[in-house]
Amino acid sequence: MEERRRDESGTAPVQRRNEAFRLLCERLRKLSEGRPQTPSEVLLRQSRDER
User: Fold this and answer.
1) Which of the 8 DSSP states describes residue 47?
2) 1, 26, 4: which is closest to 15 by C-alpha?
3) Three-state SS across 3-45?
4) For residue 8, what are the CA distances in angstroms to 5, 11, 20, 49?
5) pLDDT tens digit sequence for 5-42
6) What confidence score (pLDDT) does residue 28 get?
7) Which residues contact 11 (CB under 8 A, 6 or more apart)?
């Protein structure tokens, strides 16, 4: 089996970073489940109106 190490720059292998990102996405979806979300268009309009 291939040994996984950090490369010389100190960053984790891409596959491990992708897995960590996927887990964070799942966690965020669970936290925001059932909550209303404001569409970005509405937020942009509100921001424009405040200026």
Assistant:
1) H
2) 4
3) CCCCCCCCCCCHHHHHHHHHHHHHHHHHHHCCCCCCCHHHHHH
4) 9, 8, 20, 49
5) 555 666 678 888 899 999 999 999 999 999 888 889 88
6) 93
7) 17
